[in-house]
Amino acid sequence: MRRPIVVGNWKMNTLLSEASQLVAKLRDNLAGVTEVEVGVCPPFVYLPAVNEALKGSNIGLGAQNVYFQEKGAFTGEVSAAMLKDVGCKYVIIGHSERRTIMAENDDIINKKLKAVLGKGLIPIFCIGETLEQRQEGITERIIRSQIDAGLDGITSDDIAKTVIAYEPVWAIGTGKNATPQQAQEVHLFIRKLIAHITSDIIARDIQIIYGGSVKAENAQDILSQSDIDGALVGGASLDAEAFTRIVQSAKR
Ligand code: PGA
After folding, report:
1. 108 lines ligand 1 (CB under 6 A)
2. What domains sit in the chain, N to C, each tagged with a CATH number?
3. 95 HSE (CA, 13 A, CB side)
4. Deepest in the core among 5, 73, 145, 202, taking most CB within 10 A?
5. Averages of pLDDT over each 10 residues, the chain, 252 residues
6. Global confidence as pTM
7. 167 is catalytic
């Protein structure tokens, strides 16, 4: 059975003292929780400090981005090996903010997925349609093209290790979450696509999580859908109590 997973994407938030306080509270709140896989993705600069603060807990460390090259003259970039070296388990790839603000395309995202999988890290591969695309009725076409291009040339074994995050762009940071039914429909569609490119067993076992204005108040409804295996949480992950409630809601 798929284990639920809830990951906090802190984005460009927190100073070091706030990051430390947040982690300390999460450690306390989530000490007994084993049924749900939990991760936090602080800004790059706090990864070593947060890693230290998480030692001995069941919360995994993740990064919000990575560069696909191994090393060299790439000013300002961070490699998968470096992320692994400072204790990361997860790396968010293809987040819509990176696709739009930083102009990342499917080709770059594909290279990043390969780089991360090559180092034994778990990618959290984000996909999702914009509001215009949903209104035009081309959500499935967009999802299919993001999956096909993002996972191009990646083996079934590696796809099986990937967490897919469905994040409708119109729901991110807007307070407008997809209805549980809207999200479930797309999750089921993604699972079918994965079955088509890998196998029924991999599709059955792959973790597909939802992101976009997940809050303590709506988590239960969203996370109770049969093909929604957890959440990628932005804003609410900065509030230890709210994030804890979301994790509790993910228990099956
Ligand atoms: P949000 O962000 O929860 O603030 O909408 C989700 C995300 O960007 O992963």
Report:
1. no
2. 5-249 (3.20.20.70)
3. 23
4. 5
5. 96 98 97 96 98 97 98 98 98 98 97 98 98 96 98 98 97 88 98 98 98 96 97 98 98 91
6. 0.97
7. yes
